[in-house]
Amino acid sequence: MGGALSLNWLREDGRGRSYVSDWAAEIGGSVDRTTGLFSTVGRVVWLRLENCQLGHPWTGRGAMSSSSVATAGGAALRRDGKKLVRSPSGLRMVPEHRAFGSPFGLEEPQWVPDKECPRCMQCDIKFDFITRKHHCRRCGKCFCDKCCSKKVPLPRMCFVDPVRQCAECVLVSQKEMEFYDKQLKVLMNGATFCVTIGTSEKSELLVCRLSNNQRYLFLDGEIHYEIEIAQISTVQILTEGFTPGGGNTRATGMLLQYKEPGAQDVTQMKFTASEDSNSNKKQSTTWLAAMHKAAKLLYESRDQ
Ligand SMILES: [Zn+2]
Ligand SMILES: [Zn+2]
């Protein structure tokens, strides 16, 4: 454990100075003194303490900075600065700056105070010394162990590990994992579209993809455009199909409205699935379906 190491590294934040080893012990991990890697015991998170050098005080402010955070497999290398924070709900890897968070992120809920819930909010069993309270990390409500026993990943709240959730929230989170496992990858892989900007008569063939930090749509062709997801006001997926219920509809395009920083008016972009080959068309259709899901999460994140 970190406490056993005799490191000279110092960190400094609003609460004063502390030794890195103490800090690591405090949040339940340790620092490797040769590599400078921080690890939490039994977890797959590694945090390189780039601002720290052996024998030198770390004079940066705030939490430890990391410009390269990777899972143990090394697959998910991210360049954005992240920091590890411990909340009552668990360990979270959050962006250094709030503005750099994922547009699909959700805030942690306020926990229902213990004194306000004498009984399980699902099965109504009375809490006592044997029947203990547990808070669902997603909704913050109070349950008995039986009604809140599952631990499920919750990437939208930046949790490092799967966290305890009630039955209702488990369903929602599992559905979301589908988005993270499948649709998010589709969006990042990109697809080709004919894009018309504003009232222009001309359309351009552009490859559209979601940036790795989930904060931008990159459009690449003759020119490179970046649309910040936070600036998008509406996403409308255009479909074709014959059943009124929408069972057989197929996504053919997308209308995007966004406001450029400093601009007064909303800019509209029209994306039409590329027709130049069948495989391209299929890729574009899949991408649009993924974008449809992404838009739902996006609106939900904004409404919270
Ligand atoms: Zn219960
Ligand atoms: Zn819940």
Layout of secondary structure:
Elements: E1 10-13, E2 16-19, H1 20-26, E3 29-31, E4 37-40, E5 45-48, E6 69-71, E7 82-87, E8 90-95, E9 134-135, E10 142-143, E11 150-152, E12 163-165, H2 167-189, E13 191-197, E14 203-210, E15 216-220, E16 224-228, E17 232-240, E18 250-258, E19 267-273, H3 278-303
Antiparallel strand pairs: 1-2, 3-4, 4-5, 5-6, 7-8, 9-10, 11-12, 13-14, 13-19, 14-15, 15-16, 17-18, 18-19
The structure holds zinc ion (2 copies).
The total beta strand count reads 19
Our count of domains comes out at: 3
Q: Reading side by side through the largest sheet, how are the strands ordered?
A: 16-15-14-13-19-18-17
CATH class of the largest domain: Mainly Beta
Identify the overall geometry: elongated
Count of helical stretches? 3
Helical amount: 10-25%
End-to-end span in angstroms? 38 Å
Strand content: 25-35%
Low-confidence stretches: 1-17, 40-79
Bound molecules: zinc ion
Written as H for each helix and E for each strand, in order along the chain, the element string is EEHEEEEEEEEEEHEEEEEEEH
The CATH superfamily of the largest domain appears as Zinc finger FYVE domain-containing protein 21, C-terminal
What's the CATH topology name of the largest domain? PH-domain like
Query: Based on helices, strands and strand pairing, what is the structural class?
Result: alpha+beta
CATH 2nd-level architecture of the largest domain = Roll
Largest sheet: 7 strands, antiparallel
Overall pLDDT confidence = 77
Radius of gyration based on Cα positions: 23 Å
